[in-house]
Design a protein that fits this description.
The strands form 4 sheets. Strands 1, 2, 3, 4, 5, 6, 8 and 13 form an 8-stranded mixed sheet that branches. Strands 7-12 form a two-stranded antiparallel ribbon. Helix content is 23%, strand content 35%. It starts with 16 loop residues before the first strand and ends with a helix. It is globular and about 50 Å long. It has 3 helices and 14 strands. It has 242 residues and is of the alpha+beta class.
Length: 242
């Protein structure tokens, strides 16, 4: 169960999952695509809430991005890129998406059960700390802009609704733990994230059904470890760029 290096972002991907870094004349983004529809839970407006999508976009925008109709604008962007907006969830960030941190971990299933899908978690994270924050602390409205820490968690498995929500909690705890390890502060207190963080949980809907995703479970353990490592990797990549 060793996490893979972020140096090879296509290493040890879940079967049927691909990630592309795209620089087009219209913009820059990460595109994670599945051969089959994934069950998703997304905190962003583009494909927000529970859904079923083949693609997940993490799109880089200007820090001053302020569209009057962001849903329509994202729909148009996907369309000009030749993508089907009805088959994709999306998120925005002012962070440099090429500084994506990647981590993948697998927990092999019982060898006595043949052809059982392995429990595998892949995470992509992009980190921008220009609007770092601490949940519960007071912040001025001027600090609210696209920044941010975007986390995409893809799980090879079936999850109940409760487990999907539980996965969001575990991923968020791991993100905050990574920021603590990096000694990121807001004033004298540790930061817990940024003002505009987003997370997508996506499940392939293959293999066993998981009812829980807390830190005491195998699934939760993998989510926690991969999110933590991906956050650290993205920050390391950003630190290497002058």
């Amino acid at each position: 169960m060793t996490p893979n290096s972020q140096a090879d972002r296509n290493e040890a991907l879940i079967r049927g999952i691909q990630m592309q870094y795209v620089e087009s004349s219209h913009g820059t983004y990460l595109w994670i695509h599945s051969e089959t529809s994934m069950r998703t839970l997304n905190s962003s407006p583009w494909g927000g809430g529970f859904g079923s999508y083949k693609g997940i976009m993490n799109r880089q925008v200007d820090m001053l991005y302020n569209e009057a109709d962001p849903i329509g604008e994202m729909h148009d962007f996907m369309t000009v890129e030749g993508l089907n907006p009805l088959e994709a969830a999306g998120m925005l960030t002012a962070a440099i998406v090429n500084h994506v941190g990647f981590c993948s971990m697998t927990w092999e299933q019982d060898e006595e059960v043949p052809n059982l899908e392995p429990l595998q978690v892949c995470v992509w994270a992009t980190v921008g700390l220009g609007n770092k924050a601490r949940a519960g602390a007071e912040l001025p409205a001027s600090s609210l802009y696209p920044g941010t820490i975007n986390t995409i968690v893809v799980i090879n498995g079936k999850l109940t609704d409760a487990a999907m929500v539980n996965a969001v909690i575990t991923a968020t705890e791991a993100k905050s733990a990574a920021l603590q390890a990096l000694n990121v502060h807001v004033g004298d207190l540790p930061a817990t994230g940024t003002t505009t963080d987003a997370v997508v949980i996506a499940a392939t809907d293959r293999g066993p059904l998981y009812a829980y995703a807390g830190t005491a479970t195998r699934l939760g353990y993998l989510i926690g470890r991969t999110v933590y490592e991906a956050i650290l990797a993205s920050c390391q990549l950003s630190a290497k760029t002058p």
